[in-house]
Design a protein that fits this description.
Layout (H helix, E strand, L loop, with lengths): L2 H37 L1 E7 L2 E7 L1 E2 L5 E2 L6 E2 H27 L3 H9 L6 H24 L1
Antiparallel strand pairs: 1-2, 1-5, 3-4
Keywords: Cell membrane, Membrane, Transmembrane, Transmembrane helix
Membrane topology: Multi-pass membrane protein
Subcellular location: Cell membrane
Length: about 140
């Protein structure tokens, strides 16, 4: 394996991993967001009512949540923060693929949307991984 092929395969592997992790977290936050909007509850960890449970709340006149526990971790909020950082890693993978494979800017945008449109990252990973494998094969053939 030549160094260029190794670099391209490394970028592809990073892209695949970040695509799946970002996609899973995006699905998770969409589920938690749905729970928040429908039954006004956040997923809570290690609070006063148990290890893992839904903490129900109400909203007062100032749009402040009332009734959430004072101790424990709000996993709904934490999942949003974690997804944000994972999306940054995903964009880094997208940028590496875009620059190393010399793809057009539209591919960069479509892949970037995969981190914010639910389930799209799974489709973009599958499609663009195949495209990348073809590009690697063409480069290896050209070098040989």
């Amino acid at each position: 394996m030549n160094p260029q092929e190794s670099t391209l395969r490394g970028a592809l592997k990073y892209f695949k991993v970040t695509s799946y992790i970002t996609g899973i977290f995006l699905v998770l936050i969409m589920i938690l967001w749905g729970i928040r909007l429908t039954i006004q509850a956040d997923l809570w960890l290690a609070g006063p009512d148990g290890f893992l449970y839904l903490a129900y709340y109400s909203v007062d006149a100032n749009d402040t949540k009332v009734g959430l526990p004072d101790s424990g971790l709000d996993l709904t909020v934490i999942s949003l923060i974690v997804h944000g950082w994972l999306y940054v890693a995903y964009l880094l993978g997208d940028f590496r693929m875009w620059t190393l494979y010399r793809w057009n800017f539209m591919r960069f945008i479509v892949i970037a949307l995969g981190g914010i449109v639910p389930l799209l990252s799974f489709f973009t990973e599958r499609h663009f991984s195949k495209v990348a494998e073809k590009d690697i094969a063409a480069i290896v053939k050209k070098v040989a």
